[in-house]
Amino acid sequence: MQEVPHKKITRALISVSDKEGVVPLARELAKNGVEIIASDGTAALLKDSGIEVKTVTEVTGSPELLGGKVKTLHPLIHAALLVDQSNPQQVSELKGLGPIDLLIINLYPTSGFDIGGPALTRAAVKNSEHVAVITASNQYPELLSSLKLGTTLEQRKRWAVSALLLTAKYDLALLKERSEPLRYGENPHQDGALATNNHHEVLQGKAMSFNNYLDLQAAWELSRSCGTAVAIVKHGIPAGLAQANSAAKAFKAAWECDPTSAFGGVVVSELAIDAECAAEIIKGFVEVVAANEITKEALDIFATKTNLRVVKLEPPSEVDFAIRAIYGGFLFQSQDGFDNAGDRFENWRLVSGVAVDDKTAKDLLLAWRIAGKARSNAVVLVRDGAAIGIGAGSVSRVDAARLAISKANEFSKAKLSGSVAASDGFFPFPDGVEALIASGVAAIVQPGGSLKDDAVIAAARASGVTMYLTGQRHFSH
User: Fold this and answer.
1) I need a labelling partner for 421 at 20 to 30 A (CA). Which of 162, 193, 270, 303 fits?
2) Is 238 within 8 Å of 210 (Cβ atoms)?
């Protein structure tokens, strides 16, 4: 069907809680021959202002109910908004009211828990091919300028996005009001609340804080990405991770990566936490310990540290997409994971040195996954199934490499020579690779794709260090 460039407005429904600017807007609509229908409260204001208007009650024959809680939730109103105006059969089904081309609406404060407003808004958005939906007074001037020729599909789609943002933020505000209150948010001067379908059981300790939940999430994602592993995270950045056949061995190796940063961190284990592991954990100070399985003997040991939060993890919920709030709206993206072709060792491209053996390949894969879950820029050093140096959250790649090396030199110097390194993004210059080579790293994996790839690869070849390119990056901001 050929798109009509402009669509004239013949009929409008107005239902507003905030009535600022609605009278002059409705007056201009009436001057342009638009039939106006309004909820009873809005209609009373418009009638008092000398504007011809029909009330929803007059159109539907149904009075408002429950003190105004039910007024626009009527099949006739919603059908007039949802009808496919290009389909004569659907239009003929409307009885007593023609199609509505324009919805002007805003919502009650959340204390009023608006029901009809969001329902009308969603109906108009669903049918934005035919219906314009205006949800803010700052949109009134553009609407008025469009009355003569009509609205365009681009305008209606843009207004529809604004309308969905309004209802999404409204629903989030309602959710926050009904969420579990936390002591505070990220800082004591910020409010905090929790709403989740993953009801992890807090078995003991102080109440979980906002930051505890953030670090628990980061550590849980990291440990699940690395198999039979224990992860330690603080401020959203890995402080250590190790794989082993027991939680005690994995925890000890993870803690040894960076005991200074691990202090006060969150520990998550993919292995059952037993008494041996619990005894190791309480030797230091951590805020939270979490696992899918914690033995009774381990719980008895943790009970000696009454403030320690011990959490039994529930299976993770499926997440369709990741969401980040920005001013005015949201960013959406699919979840990052390690199921891409570039995350498999057999697809990596050897560009320097000799192919590694299976043991070294496993270390490279582990370093790659830790780097992918660390904050960019990230460089991670691994030896024998454990991180020995993590440089994360740096604003330059070379600084991330230097930080990882300095941590390894401080706590695992004997393991540095012969270790492997992974970078979550490409090396823009040879300097980061040169620092790793000078430290004794034997193999490096990185995405590649820099304008300076030739120089970076040449530095690796000159030293004989093995380098693989994945063609895949894992930035995390």
Assistant:
1) 270
2) no
pLDDT for 188 equals 95
Q: Token pair 């440990």 is at which residue?
A: 223
Distance CA 104, CA 135 (A): 6
CB of 78 within 8 A of CB of 119? yes
In the sheet with 11-15, reading across from the earlier edge strand, the strands are: 54-55, 35-38, 11-15, 102-105, 132-134
The answer as to CATH 3.10.310.10 being correct for domain 197-312 is no
Greatest Cα pair distance in the chain: 87
Are 238 and 424 in contact by the 8 Å Cβ rule? The answer is: no
Contact 430, 459 (CB under 8 A): yes
Question: Contact at 8 Å (CB) between 447 and 427?
Answer: no
Element (H, E) at 127: none
Q: What are the φ and ψ backbone dihedral angles of 61, each rounded to 5 degrees?
A: 75, 5
Tell me which amino acid residue 272 is.
A
Rounded CA gap, 271 and 283, in Å?
A: 19
Residue with tokens 């550590």: 219
Angle 332-477-436 (CA atoms, 0-180°, nearest 5)?
A: 140
Residue that the structure tokens 């553009």 belong to: 142
Helices within 295-357 (DSSP H only): 296-302
For 46-81, what is each residue's pLDDT tens digit? 999 999 999 998 888 887 778 777 778 889 999 999
Counting Cβ atoms within 10 Å, is residue 231 exposed (0-12), middle (13-18) or buried (19+)?
buried
Instruction: Please give the structure tokens belonging to residue 314.
Output: 């529930």
Please tell me the CATH superfamily of domain 11-176, with its number.
Answer: Methylglyoxal synthase-like domain (3.40.50.1380)
What is the C-alpha to C-alpha distance for residues 184 and 189, in angstroms, rounded to an integer? 7
Domain boundaries defined on the chain: 11-176, 197-312, 341-469
Place of tokens 């390690």: 338
One-letter amino acid for residue 14 of the chain? I
User: What pLDDT does residue 1 have?
Assistant: 46
Say what the pTM is. Answer: 0.90
* Interval 7-27 mean pLDDT: 95
Q: Which of 221, 222, 226 is nearest to 363 (CA)?
A: 226
Average pLDDT of the segment spanning 234-241: 97
> What is the band of 153 on the pLDDT scale with cuts at 50, 70, 90?
very high
Gap between the Cα atoms of 348 and 267, Å rounded: 31
Would you identify the CATH topology of the domain 341-469? Cytidine Deaminase; domain 2 (3.40.140)
CB of 240 within 8 A of CB of 381? no
Cα 390–Cα 391–Cα 393 angle in degrees, nearest 5: 125
Q: Is-same-fold flag (197-312; 341-469)?
A: yes
Q: How many residues are recorded in the chain? A: 477
Q: Are 311 and 216 in contact (CB under 8 A)?
A: yes
